[in-house]
């Protein structure tokens, strides 16, 4: 084997390896080319979301009785007290999101009460913040049920509302 043959083999092998990597390894690893490495890394990052995964440190559910009047002090106005939100009669401790449900928070309307109707309607209006959700449409009921499921996975259950309006007391 001559030096010329070895050099010729290397000259042919380098493009062959490059083409092989481009065709076969390129589909498995989109960052294999230098020109797209910076943008592909960003594209491969997990998309950002405002939704946090459910916590794994929820307290066991409690069944403490609350009247609608007894819920009122848990509206976030007193920083020494927890913040409670009731949905369909289930009372959740949302204190871990004080900035959202506390005084001045974007969802403070729901704190210290059962505002199931407003949640089902996706409303932030005071007049909709009622525990009576019996008149909700089917689609609004689905929204309300989705909220109840969401809260059940993310916040500790601390009790039940015992004086819901008769129209929803047994739902």
UniProtKB/TrEMBL annotation:
UniProt similarity note: Belongs to the cytochrome b5 family. MAPR subfamily.
Every Cytochrome b5 heme-binding domain range: 66-162
Official protein name in the record: Cytochrome b5 heme-binding domain-containing protein
Listed InterPro entries: Cyt_B5-like_heme/steroid-bd, Cyt_B5-like_heme/steroid_sf, MAPR/NEUFC/NENF-like
Pfam families: Cyt-b5
Single GO term (MF): heme binding
Region ranges (Disordered): 30-79
Stretches with biased composition (Polar residues): 30-41
One Gene Ontology cellular component annotation held by this UniProt entry: endoplasmic reticulum
């Amino acid at each position: 084997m001559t030096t010329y043959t070895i050099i010729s083999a290397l000259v042919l092998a380098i493009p062959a390896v490059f083409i092989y990597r481009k065709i076969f390894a390129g589909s498995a690893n989109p960052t294999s080319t230098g020109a797209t490495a910076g943008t592909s890394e960003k594209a491969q990052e997990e998309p950002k979301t405002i939704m946090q995964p459910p916590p794994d440190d929820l307290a066991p559910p409690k069944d403490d009785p609350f009247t609608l009047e007894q819920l009122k002090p848990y509206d976030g106005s007193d920083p020494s007290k927890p913040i409670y939100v009731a949905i369909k009669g289930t009372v959740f401790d949302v204190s871990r999101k004080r900035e959202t449900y506390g005084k001045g928070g974007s969802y403070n309307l729901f704190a210290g009460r059962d505002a199931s109707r407003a949640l089902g309607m996706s409303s932030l209006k005071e007049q909709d913040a009622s525990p009576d959700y019996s008149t909700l449409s089917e689609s609004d009921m689905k929204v309300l049920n989705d909220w109840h499921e969401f809260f059940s996975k993310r916040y500790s259950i601390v009790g039940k509302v015992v004086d819901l309006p008769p129209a929803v007391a047994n739902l």
